[in-house]
Amino acid sequence: MKNNKKKIIFKKRTSVKQIEEGSEFCPKFNDLKLLPCITVEEKSNEILMFSYVNKEALKKTLETKKAHYFSRSRNLLWFKGETSGMYHYVKKILIDDDQDCLIFEVALSKPKKGGNPASCHVGYKSCFYRKVVKSKDGEVVLRFIEKKKSFDPEKVYKGITNPTRI
Amino acid sequence: MKNNKKKIIFKKRTSVKQIEEGSEFCPKFNDLKLLPCITVEEKSNEILMFSYVNKEALKKTLETKKAHYFSRSRNLLWFKGETSGMYHYVKKILIDDDQDCLIFEVALSKPKKGGNPASCHVGYKSCFYRKVVKSKDGEVVLRFIEKKKSFDPEKVYKGITNPTRI
Fold first, then answer.
1. How close, in Å, is residue A14 to chain B by CA atoms?
2. Pairing label, strands B140-144, B35-41
3. Alpha helices of chain A — where are they, by DSSP H?
4. What is the pLDDT of residue A137?
5. Residue B34 near chain A (CB below 8 Å)
6. Cα separation of B35 and B27, whole Å?
7. How far is residue B121 from each of residues A22, B54, B81, B156, B164, measured CA to CA in Å?
8. What ipTM was estimated for this complex?
9. Which of A50, A83, A94, B113 has the fewest Cβ atoms nearer than 10 Å?
10. CA gap A91, A14 in Å, rounded
């Protein structure tokens, strides 16, 4: 067990070969010190949300196996599920060719105030609950693909400011 | 057919309700005028890559049903497949709750210089060909999950600068 507590080190990026073809973990954080992260439900392969991690969030995720993100709207470390009970239990992490994007494959849990396992603060399972289509008159519009909410956001996030910004 | 040529309009963002619960298409481009985009293979649900679109790329994608992105490394509109033959035929587009991220669900094609249908410039089907794991001695390292390349990148991208930046 001692080994699992080894300090997590992000290696220095030295060559395209190291980054693309190697086994060294050398993620590239952007100018805002963030790394994009796609969250997928492991069992269904469904994409649940898109967000960012900073170094601290990524380290905490690797250490605890529960997803931590960086909330840009609140400008702080965001332990997913802390408020709602809807944790992201991380089963697998993938990284892309140039190591500037992550995938967290997760299992979901139910909101503590009732409802089905879900992820999105609006009440749907996934944040991607609408598709972009052309309407009959040729206008580009959105159509709901999740027909029913998994939980009542008014109950689960009572008193919490909505993170969506206009 | 006339209707399909209607000008694509991105609606003005006016309220959280409109953005989250509505059917108006009002994507939010970031400070660099880009919108993150996750590309998924429609038939397998496998995530292929993560990139960005600008307004022009998104409009061209909606018009042609072939994915166009914005290449940050080359700072230009990127018609995926133009060089390699590995087009992304867009079957479905999804958008997230606050309309600041897209998913393109696509079908792949083979590189014109030979190989199997794929997407990643390194030669793998997906850009996410490695997982992040702890090694026996507790170090965080990468392990390949795609064992074999789908095509030879030296052949397919001969003379083209590698987009990966150190």
1. 7
2. unpaired
3. 16-21, 55-64, 153-156
4. 87
5. no
6. 8
7. 15, 21, 10, 9, 10
8. 0.94
9. B113
10. 29
